[in-house]
Specification:
The chain folds into three domains: 157 residues, Beta-Lactamase; 143 residues, GAF domain (Beta-Lactamase), CATH 3.30.450.40; 157 residues, Reverse transcriptase/Diguanylate cyclase domain (Alpha-Beta Plaits, 2-Layer Sandwich), CATH 3.30.70. By secondary structure, it is an alpha+beta fold. The strands form three sheets. A six-stranded antiparallel sheet has the order 3-2-1-6-5-4, with helices on both faces. A six-stranded antiparallel sheet has the order 9-8-7-12-11-10, sandwiched between helices. Strands 14-15-13-16-17-18 form a six-stranded mixed sheet, with helices on both faces. The chain is elongated. 43% of the residues lie in helices and 23% in strands.
Length: 500
């Protein structure tokens, strides 16, 4: 009758709720009350680390509930390894015993099995020596099958519920990202949505750009402390993201400290997942999820996250197309370089970036000397060709992330990112010298320029202040005889060449 009563109560516990913690607690209460146990616990198996960890317990001493036992260690670890009950009638005489309560004198560990696979251990402890007789051991073994069923049912329900929530999250991400065509806004939204939907510590997007072999951190969102700034450069073939890109497959590492290829750009990262971003067969970059908790990522979530990555990659590709269309509106039709409209947009971004990160930036205003006279002497067709070639010289001499714009007529505006007065002055002089020595076909005399340079924040902190200062420098160059590169008034740095 006792056997029937125990099995009935255990069955009711299995059917009463799908909440895993509630099921486990009810099983422990039944085991404690029916078998008069002082300490009873259920330890679950972490397949990633092959360790047992207590998920629910009654009666253990404080501090022991955080223990992790490798399979094969202790009475419980031996039961998991051998897939059969292990009994220690007197733990004082059993070298395998690992203490969880000082009062324990006998211990019985019964593996919890699902289809011949160990999922955990029911650990029963008593303050009495030889507390468990053969009948009790048989009964607890039978009882463990009910506990295993309860555990499996709760896990399946939890998995289904998790997948339902993930499907809902995927749908929400798809709806919200397809409506955003601005790349910066899109990436910011992607990171925020994924972090909240999948409950990770931090989400980052690394993108390839142009002919560069490196990746750039274009957006991130979360709770971790960055080691590199936004827009920071990272080698495409390095780290875990390099492995993911090289294989074209998702890479999951639940213990980054154990992986020699790990490169961290957040201080607290303990686990990482890297998912290549691929749209229409083109690899755009990689989506990175970081967690501060070791073992945080469940391999069962990989498919859902890959679906999210595919949605994001398509949205990023669409944003690229829109960006290209926008750029056409920002290009000068004659020279092919950026126009004044783009300059007005970009200078605001550069000033904001310099303000946020404490990095300098500079504006160089350039004018082709006596260009009207050149047009009058040689005609407008040759004048147009001079404009094109001067634009090409500037483009070749500048860094890829600097911007050269046709400001109007024969005047150019150049934006230098992350620079200082010495470098900006040297660039202006290099441009002046490059134009001076260039042989312009059909023009029998040298073509020269005058340039004025203004530095943020030395000459101003707004667009108007910087342009006005750079114009003043250019005017000073003209007044000094042309073919000069002058710093705006207020700084002593100045490069000059003899006038023509």
């Amino acid at each position: 009758m006792q056997k029937i009563a125990i099995l009935y109560d255990a069955s009711q516990a299995v059917l009463s709720t799908f909440d895993l913690d509630e099921v486990l607690q009810q099983i422990l209460i039944i085991a404690r009350d029916y078998f008069h146990l002082q300490n009873v616990a259920i330890l679950l198996l972490d397949k990633e680390t092959d360790e047992l960890y207590p998920r629910s317990q009654i009666g253990w001493d404080a501090g022991h509930d955080a223990v992790r036992l490798p399979v094969g260690t202790g009475i419980t670890g031996s039961a998991a390894r051998q897939k059969r009950p292990i009994y220690a009638p007197d733990v004082r005489n059993d070298p395998r015993y690992v203490e969880s309560a000082k009062s324990t004198l006998s211990e019985l560990a019964v593996p919890l099995m699902v289809r011949d696979e160990v999922v955990g251990v029911l650990d029963c402890q008593s303050e009495n020596v030889n507390h468990f007789d053969n009948e009790t051991i048989d009964l607890l073994t039978l009882f463990s099958t009910q506990a295993s069923m309860a555990l499996q049912n709760a896990r399946l329900h939890s998995l289904e519920r998790r997948r339902a929530l993930q499907l809902k999250a995927i749908n929400a991400i798809a709806q919200q990202t397809t409506a955003v065509l601005d790349l910066k806004e899109l990436l910011s939204k992607v990171c925020s949505l994924i972090k909240h939907a999948f409950q990770v510590s931090h989400v980052s997007v690394l993108l390839k750009e142009g002919e560069e072999d490196d990746l750039f951190l274009r957006a991130h969102y979360g709770d971790l402390t960055p080691r590199i700034p936004e827009d920071g450069r990272l080698p495409a073939g390095a780290g875990l993201w390099g492995q993911a890109l090289g294989s074209g497959k998702t890479l999951l590492e639940n213990d980054v400290k154990s992986n020699p290829n790990y490169i961290g750009f957040y201080v607290e990262t303990a686990a990482r997942m890297c998912i290549p971003l691929v749209a229409f067969g083109q690899t755009l970059g990689v989506l990175i999820l970081d967690s501060s908790q070791r073992g945080a990522f469940n391999p069962n979530d990989t498919q859902s996250l890959e679906s999210v990555a595919d949605i994001c990659a398509t949205a990023i590709q669409n944003a690229y197309y829109v960006e290209r269309v926008k750029q056409l509106a920002y290009l000068d039709g004659l020279t092919g370089i950026f126009n004044r409209r783009f300059f007005e947009l970009r200078i605001a971004e550069e000033i904001e970036r310099a303000r946020r990160f404490g990095a300098g930036m500079a504006v160089i205003m350039v004018d082709i000397d006596q260009f009207k006279r050149l047009n009058d002497e040689f005609g407008h067709l040759l004048g147009d060709e001079v404009l094109r070639q001067v634009s090409s010289i500037f483009h070749q001499q500048l860094r890829k992330f600097d911007a050269v714009c046709r400001y109007g007529g024969e005047e150019f505006a150049i934006l230098l990112s992350q620079t200082n007065p010495q470098h900006a002055s040297a660039v202006a002089e290099k441009l002046r010298r490059s134009v001076e020595i260039w042989q312009f076909p059909g023009v029998p005399r040298p073509v020269t320029i005058s340039a004025g340079t203004a530095i943020y924040p030395d000459h101003g902190s707004t667009r108007d202040e910087l342009v006005k200062a750079a114009d003043a420098g250019m005017y000073a160059a003209k007044q000094a005889g042309r073919n000069q590169a002058c710093m705006a008034p207020g700084l002593s740095i100045q490069h000059a060449a003899g006038s023509t």
